[in-house]
Design goal:
18 strands; three-stranded antiparallel β-sheet; 13 helices; aminopeptidase; manganese; Aminopep_P_N; 430 residues
Length: 430
């Protein structure tokens, strides 16, 4: 891996938190992701399943984690299964985890080669009464490909139909949404790398550069700072392209006088960052662009103050809508009649700000978190309001990543990334 090794104590703590929530005499199994084929003998780059990484720190394909806290034998309480490495694999694919190295990474003492997984599982299931299966129940999930995890669940149900079934995901939704200090440090590192990329781009952008050239500048800076690259597909949207919320073509020319919306974040050690800034291609905002930009910034600042323990995600968005409504009235984009006659299910402000303001962030860019439960300290949220005006040929979004605190306003992990009109213009013209 490119990143520095993470202290295994983090994964020891994460497993302890998970097993404390398991029912008596139960087993939980977690599988790595597949390596997905493209065609012929080519594949997509491997990306580890976030759940097994969260619980073990193992960042390698064909790995399986088994947790059995009530096992009758100590060596079966935590078991890590790995593909057996050898000299041939080392030559052709590179070094894989040995049993000793796996313990250094995960803190798990029992490491068994994957070829003995079914034999070990058969013994374990003879002792256990309940199996925790791992399914993806994230509110944004759209699952069209059968995963390695899904294939295991199907196989297990066919072979062990007499056991009770529980779900790992509700436990993980709660645990992963509240970050340990080590995780916050890793997310901060990802944000710091994103800052370096943004500062590089501020010195690069000028009229007539291509959107993909800007994307390349980010990629260069991310990779040279131990990141695998983008935490998600980057949005480099100039002019009216910014009004397409998930614009990812990044193939147009940045023209003089246009704004350039940059929704970009680096990953680090599988942890995400998620930044949006909107900058003037020519280095200066027009008066109208500046007015809209500052309105979005005020909404972001006020919304941030509401991310405190005890607040609820749904009610938070209602309050943000009220703030945005006031700003849109001030900009002349809506009038009082629009507000008085609005559809409660689609308020007037939604014409110009049609997406949500915040989502959980962590190992996934849209991270685990149960939206119907109150916010807690050490949850990480994005704050990303926007105003999109197709008739005027531009859209503006501004986004930071913040950590909810026990008391007071959230801590901004992107506090050092230039954000004001004055900062951006100064750096672009220095």
């Amino acid at each position: 891996m490119k990143y520095h090794q993470i202290d295994r104590d983090l994964f020891v703590k994460n497993r302890a938190k998970f097993t404390a929530q398991m029912k008596p005499n139960s087993v939980a199994v977690f599988n790595s992701n597949d390596i997905y084929p493209v065609s012929a003998d080519s594949t997509l780059p491997f990306a580890q399943h976030r759940d097994i990484f969260y619980l073990s720190g193992v960042d390698q394909e064909e790995s399986v984690l088994l947790l059995f806290p009530d096992a009758p034998f100590e060596h079966l309480k935590e078991v890590l299964f790995l593909r057996e490495t050898n000299e041939h694999i080392a030559v052709w694919e590179g070094e894989k985890l040995t049993k000793e190295r796996a313990f250094e990474v995960s803190g798990i003492k029992t490491v068994i080669w994957l070829q003995d997984f079914h034999k070990t599982l058969k013994e374990v299931m003879a002792y256990a009464e309940t199996m925790y299966i791992n399914t993806n129940e994230h509110y944004r999930a759209v699952i069209e490909t059968e995963t390695r995890e899904a294939r295991f669940v199907k196989w297990w149900k066919e072979n062990y139909p007499a056991h009770r079934v529980e779900k790992s995901n509700p436990i993980l939704q709660r645990l992963r949404s509240v970050k340990e200090s080590e995780e916050l440090d890793l997310i901060q590192k990802a944000c710091d790398i994103t800052e370096k990329g943004f500062r590089r781009v501020l010195n690069f952008v000028k009229p007539n550069v291509m959107e993909y050239e800007v994307e390349a500048e980010f990629a260069h800076e991310f990779l040279r700072n131990r990141s695998k690259g983008f935490a998600y597909t980057p949005i480099i949207a100039s002019g009216s392209n910014a009004n397409v919320l998930h614009y990812i073509e990044n193939n147009q020319q940045c023209k003089a006088g246009d704004l350039l919306l940059l929704d970009v974040g680096a990953e680090y050690a599988n942890y995400s960052s998620d930044m949006t800034r909107t900058i003037p291609v020519s280095g200066r905002f027009t008066d109208r662009q500046k007015a809209v930009y500052n309105a979005v910034l005020r909404v972001k600042d006020e919304a941030t103050k509401m991310l405190v323990p005890g607040n609820y995600w749904k009610q938070y968005h209602v309050e943000v809508g009220k703030i945005m409504t006031s700003e849109l009235l001030g900009l002349g984009l809506i009038d009082k009649a629009d507000v008085q006659n609005e559809n409660p299910d689609w308020p007037a402000y939604k014409k110009y700000f049609m997406h949500g303001t915040s989502h959980h962030m962590g190992l996934d860019t849209h991270d685990y978190g149960l939206l119907y439960e109150p916010m807690q300290a050490n949850m990480v949220f994005t704050v990303e309001p926007g105003i999109y005006i197709p008739a005027e040929g531009f859209g503006i979004r501004i986004e930071d990543d913040v950590v909810i605190q026990e008391k007071g306003e959230p801590f901004n992990l992107m506090r050092n990334i230039p954000i004001t009109v004055e900062e951006i213009e100064s750096l672009m013209n220095s």
